[in-house]
Structures are given as C-alpha cells and as structure tokens.
Amino acid sequence: MTRPQRADARRNYARVVAAAHEVFAEAGPEASLNEIARRADVGPGTLYRHFPTRGALLTAVLRDRIEALCGRADELLASESPDVALTEWLHAFLAHARSGQGLGGALMTTEPDDLGFDCHQRIRDAAAGLLENAQRAGTARADLGPGDLLQLVVGVALATVRTADPEEPARLLGLILDAIPAPPGTASS
Fold first, then answer.
1. pTM of the model
2. Residue 138 has pLDDT above 70, yes or no
3. Alpha-carbon Rg of the chain, whole angstroms?
4. What is the pLDDT of residue 112?
5. Residue 29: predicted pLDDT
6. Cα gap 69→27, rounded to integer Å
7. What is the per-residue pLDDT for 178?
C-alpha cells in the first residue's frame, strides 16, 4: 500500500513541473535541471527525488501540457458554438505545437504507458470531438478528418519555427480555417 504524499511534497512536485514548463520553453529539452530546481525554489535533491531522470521530468511536463490542451477541448465543446470551439482549439493546438522547443520530439520514443495515456490518440480524440460537432452542425465539410486537420496545423507549426514574422502562424492557420466550412449546397454529414 502506498502512503499518500505529504502536502509539502505535492507542492514541491507542482513547483518543479511549473518551473520546468518555463525553462524547457526557453531553453529546450536539454535545459539545465539545476536552473529548474532554482526557479522552483527547491534543492536539486528534491527535483531528483520526484524526477530521477530528465526523461521523467520531460514526460511530466508533456503530460501536463497535453492534459491542459485536451481539457480545453472539453471546455469548448460544452460552452461554445461548434465553429468557435473548433477555431479556438486549433489556435491552442498551434500554440502547443510551436512551443516547447522540441519537447515533443525529445519524447518521440516515449511509450504511452510512460505518459499514462497515448498522447497522439488523446489529441486526435479531442480534435475529432470538436470537428464532429461542427460537422453535425453542418458548418464543417464532411470529407475533413481530424488527422487531416492535425497534420495541417502541425505543418504550420513546423513551417514557422524560425519565422521572423510573428503573425505568420496565425495567418497560415487562418487559411486552414477558411477551408473547413462545408461548401455551399453540400450536406455535411
């Protein structure tokens, strides 16, 4: 039987993960773990007690980011029109795909069990729910699949990694969003 974690240990865990979000976003997956401990205001021993390897910390950060992204999809499904929900989530997905300086790539070999879920499937399911909602409303083309949509947005993220124009990612996403509506006179599903 596992003992429940003490309150201070839970706080330290959360502080390390929050600091890791910041430091990995700034410096990439090879960022200094000592810098993460410093920003979390914990000693290196505390960081390593919670995360014995860099991979364990990267996994925790990625899990946290994906859960937030997919949680946002659930919120949007419950509270927004289908088109607004899909548009807002695709903007959030683009920001997710562009951030982290290779965090996802650093964990490409991570097994779903390491994260506690299959991150690719979780994101695909979130996109599918939003897209299907818009298709049921008749405002999204029936021949568009969630995988297509995700590939297009990831393409924008990859194509704009080194862009000098901060508006370019949103402009390119706007072109994708313009292609989502069902053509006039067609049934959408």
1. 0.81
2. yes
3. 19
4. 47
5. 85
6. 22
7. 95
Asked if 82 and 33 sit in the same domain, the reply is no
Residue with tokens 């313009």: 178
Please check whether residues 109 and 141 belong to one and the same domain: yes
Long-range contacts formed by 117-126: CB under 8 A, 24+ apart: 117/63, 117/66, 119/62, 119/63, 119/66, 122/66, 122/70, 123/66, 123/69, 123/70, 123/93, 123/150, 124/150, 125/70, 126/69, 126/70, 126/73, 126/74, 126/89
Same domain as 70, residue 30: no
- In CATH, what number is assigned to the domain containing residue 10? 1.10.10.60
Q: Does some domain include residue 98?
A: yes
Is residue 96 within 8 A of residue 69, CB to CB? The reply is: yes
Residues 6+ apart with CB under 8 A from 11: none
pLDDT digits (tens, 9 = 90+) for 64-111: 999 999 999 999 999 889 999 999 999 999 998 888 655 655 454 444
Q: How many CA atoms lie within 13 A of 130 on its CB side?
A: 34
Residues 68 and 147 in one domain: yes
CB-count burial class (<10 Å; 0-12, 13-18, 19+) for 103: buried
**Do both 47 and 77 map to the same domain?**
no
Residue carrying structure tokens 């706080």: 11
Q: What is the pLDDT of residue 95?
A: 92
